[in-house]
Specification:
single chain, mainly beta, Immunoglobulin-like, five-stranded mixed sheet, four-stranded antiparallel sheet
Amino acid sequence: MIATGSRWVCGAVLVLAVPALSGCGVIGAQTAYCMPGDPVITPPAAPPGAELQIAIPENPECETRMPERARYEVLVTPDILDKSQEQWHFQASLGLLDPADDGAAEGTVRLPDDIPVGGAEVSVRLQGAPTICELDPHVSCAKNPFAAIEVTG
C-alpha cells in the first residue's frame, strides 16, 4: 500500500485499476474490504426446493481480515424464460453465510419452491463491511461474484 494524503491505496501503478480489482485500502478513517471470491455451487443443476452447497473461497488479492459484523448474502436470480415473464423479475435471498477471518465461507442454501425452471445466477453480496467502491466515489463497483446454475423441472 502507498499513502496519498489521508488515503491508502493498493499498488504503485494503476492506482485506480488495482483497488477496483483487489478492494483493499483505507479511505479516510474507514477500511475498505474485499469482495468475496466467486462461489462454487454443488450441484450445478437442481430442481426448485433443492439444497445447494455453496463454497466461497478467500480472495488472495485482498486483506483477509474481515470485521465481525461481515456476512455474505446469497441471492438467486433466474434468467427470463419467455415473453410472458418479461415484466417479472425474480430475485430471492437464500440466506446469510458467516465468513471466516480469511474471507472464505461455506454452507447449505435452499432454492425457492417457486423459482422458474431454466438458467439462474447465484450471487454473493458482502454486507457489514464496506468495499473500496462504496467508500471512494472514483472507483466503480464490479458485479457481485456469481456462479451459473440450471434449475431443472
